[in-house]
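Q: Thioesterase family protein, please. Structure only.
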Amino acid sequence: MNWEKFRETGCPDDTTMSSSPISSETTAVSKEIDPNYVLMVADFFKAISPDSSCNDFTSFDSFSVLFQSNTRALSISRGRVSCSVIVTPGIANFFNGLHGGAVASIAERVAMACVKTVVSEDKQLFLGELSMSYLSSASISSELVVEGSVVRTGRNLSVVTVEFKIKETMKVTYLSRATFYHSLISKL
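A: Structure for Thioesterase family protein:
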């Protein structure tokens, strides 16, 4: 059955919808469920779908679009990076706090920036471990100061700590520790 026809009539003639707004090819609808409830659920999934600017999520570094308007660099020095993050509804969770995945993504970006200030440019880095501690929540429209600093760097690995603090109170909300491994460069 066509989704638009189902929306107009509200009667499921068939148990399969061929052009559902949900990402699956077909959606099975039980005849026992109220059609209005099905419409409410479908509208909910439409409402939480990602912004159209993020449609190409398979491209390299596509998640940066989510954070580029929220993050601003404050200072960059050797082994230290400090930036400001404003919590907006786009990166908030159901409880109106900064989403845990957003915290981890921002922590990874800041940690990578810290390592890049001390490691030579020809070395490729990859994230080996990222540990997160969620101490308290940062509510929507609050501003966070994110400070990253290199704890240790060596020939094959670097360790970075990242602290998230609420700007007004300087209360620590999230802590992160990242370990980056340096890829070996062949000398052929």
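A: Brief note, in case it's useful. Residues 60-182 form a domain with the Thiol Ester Dehydrase; Chain A fold (CATH 3.10.129.10).
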